[in-house]
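Ligand-bound model needed. flavin mononucleotide.
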Amino acid sequence: MSQVSLPKSLHPNLPLTALAPMQDVTNLWFMKVIAHYGSPDYFFTEYFRVNDTSRLNRNILAAITENDTGRPVFAQMIGESIPDLVRTAKELCNYNIAGVDLNMGCPAPRIYRKNVGGGLLREPEKVDRILGELRYAVSDRPLTVKMRVGFENTDNFYQILDIINRHSIDLLSLHGRTVKDMYHGAVKYDLIGEAVRRVDCPVLANGNIHSATTAIEVLSQTGAAGVMVGRWAIGNPWIFNQIRQALRKEAIAPVPLVEVRNYIDRLCQTPTAATMPVRSRVGYLKMFLNYIALLVDAEGHFLRLMRHTQTEVELLNLCDRFLLVEETKTFALAPYSGL
Ligand SMILES: Cc1cc2nc3c(=O)[nH]c(=O)nc-3n(C[C@H](O)[C@H](O)[C@H](O)COP(=O)(O)O)c2cc1C
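Prediction:
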């Protein structure tokens, strides 16, 4: 059984929702933007890198110390050195965090080659030692794990789930793909269901939840305690409210495209934009627009033209053209397929 209780959810009668941690995305500003459109129950920071010389990254820390969304923030760590993970977890506990989360899923080769992130899934004994020491260090707050279903295959999956039980992990966020799958291929929701039945703690189902309807389907297929949404919260910041509406069997209010134009403006107002070189600003906006565009027009015109723009002025004019002209058009409730 869990040793400590999780922070209160927004709506105790509904399944949990969480914004997935995303490096270079889920910073303080993005959490504030998401909160404006409808907070999830939980936020997770980008990962704090942990090694023998690491210090807490100040920008990531700001998502905890300056967070005024009113929602709990879990601090995520990535690393493999047990003394340094323990040191960092204790340092993080000096701040107002909801809990400490360990990343066991990052699929970037430069990361897993160091046996951190998803690389840890190859070494259950190491995971056992890390979680044992971390549990001892983080005894009065939730200790949580975010992972994938395996590295190359699922051979270690059940062993790792049992390790999660042995160390009384408080919450498991599970992306239903292997590390080698990266972000491709079908998400194995059946394995998420297996985890739900095997572990003692609540499980957040993660991977390709792109609409309120998929959230409902995944919850019913897996029996998970909640859903964790990453890329489709970038594309659609209304998604957490829409999931709650769907769970309550309410009609989902369509979002007028002019509101999407306002969302883009809000993203532009990130305090770091002022110091960003112009080229990076265009790249920053396109990263978001790559997801947003998939809900704008079924033909993919906005997506294609957006990718060809070179300057910020060109990009924002294009947004005006597609989002401000037809006042009656609304944002799709799920990304158009085939784009
Ligand atoms: C740009 C980007 C950055 C990510 N950074 C992290 C991270 O720092 N920590 C982590 O555990 N997962 C990270 N992930 C994985 C997501 O949290 C999530 O598991 C994955 O995107 C699948 O969920 P989705 O289909 O809802 O996006 C990242 C994903 C993306 C797309």
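The first strand starts at residue 16 and ends at 19.
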